[in-house]
């Protein structure tokens, strides 16, 4: 077994499970729900998804050969709540994830110890992947939390329902 290739397989599955939580949450939300935010300091699901996509496209495009913070990225604009529809939100969301998965699919064992840069700071490919996994899981957790707040008793759980652990184990 090749450790680097096994890691790439495992991490792709982890990214897919994180994405799946976001997908299942977004699917439960209405056009209005995706723009809801608690207050001026909070982000909507649409804004978080837009930010994640912008990050993914920047970080994973030309991953091995250019800094992950691309000159064309406008990070501040990612935090403007201007996605007009749920359909557009899903298109933006998918663009980011597709960029990530295309890049991960092209990596090989020997790439794991190569150095890549994010904002001029060197990382091994392994470190860069782990950095982004933590970032994406953090934001998808926010999306899920917002979705649960909005849907309240109409929330369709994404894991084992409360009080059903024993039943699940059977």
Automatic annotation (TrEMBL):
Domain of life (superkingdom): Bacteria
Name under which the protein is recorded: DUF1572 domain-containing protein
UniProt xrefs under InterPro entries: DinB/YfiT-like (IPR034660), DUF1572 (IPR011466)
SUPFAM superfamilies from the UniProt entry: DinB/YfiT-like putative metalloenzymes
């Amino acid at each position: 077994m090749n450790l680097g290739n096994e890691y790439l397989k495992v991490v792709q599955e982890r990214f897919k499970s994180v994405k799946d939580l976001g997908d299942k949450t977004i699917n439960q939300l209405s056009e209005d729900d995706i723009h809801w935010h608690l207050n001026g300091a909070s982000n909507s699901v649409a804004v978080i998804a837009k930010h994640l996509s912008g990050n993914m496209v920047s970080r994973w495009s030309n991953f091995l050969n250019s800094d992950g913070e691309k000159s064309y990225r406008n990070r501040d604009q990612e935090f403007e709540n201007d996605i007009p529809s749920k359909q557009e939100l899903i298109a933006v969301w998918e663009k980011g994830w597709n960029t990530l998965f295309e890049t991960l699919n092209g990596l090989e064992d020997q790439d794991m110890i190569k150095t890549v840069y994010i904002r001029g700071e060197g990382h091994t490919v392994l470190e860069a992947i782990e950095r982004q996994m933590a970032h994406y899981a953090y934001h998808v957790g926010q999306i899920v939390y917002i979705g649960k707040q909005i849907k309240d008793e109409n929330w369709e759980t994404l894991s084992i329902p409360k009080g059903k652990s024993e039943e699940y184990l059977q």
